[in-house]
Amino acid sequence: SAGELAALLDERLETKCRLYNVDAERKVGRVAIVSGMGDSAVSEAVARKADVLITGELRHQYGLLAQELGVGVIVAGHYATETLGLMALKDKVKLRFPELDYFWLNVPTGL
After folding, report:
1. Percent of the chain with pLDDT over 70
2. Which of 32, 57, 60, 90 has the fewest Cβ atoms surrounding its Cβ within 10 A?
């Protein structure tokens, strides 16, 4: 369900998701994901028959568009969704350059 998916994202991304235009009990089969400010992908999510779009931010005009087009949005926070790619890159760099010393500085903004 959308609520279970949001709870999983909350736990894994250390964030607090908001559901927009989707009931927490709604079953979710197909998901569109765009990190950061991916709310402009609402139309593409609908075109690709997604049940929900997971993104970091939702601006007013795209929230209204999601409502008009009938797609749910799970807003997981800009920071929480943007850092996923950087963490994956960090792991690849470590494999390619094991002699490098590095660390991940996690500074969640709550946004």
Report:
1. 100
2. 60
pLDDT for residue 65: 96
Q: What is residue 110's predicted lDDT score, i.e. its pLDDT? A: 72
Count of residues in the chain: 111
CB pairs under 8 A, 24+ apart, for 10-15? 13/76, 13/77, 13/80, 13/81, 13/84, 14/80, 14/108, 15/76, 15/77, 15/79, 15/80, 15/108
Distance of alpha carbon 35 from alpha carbon 97, whole angstroms: 27
pLDDT at 87: 85
H-type alpha helices, 14-52: 42-47
Half-sphere exposure of 68 (CA within 13 A, CB side): 8
Tokens of 2: 């959308």
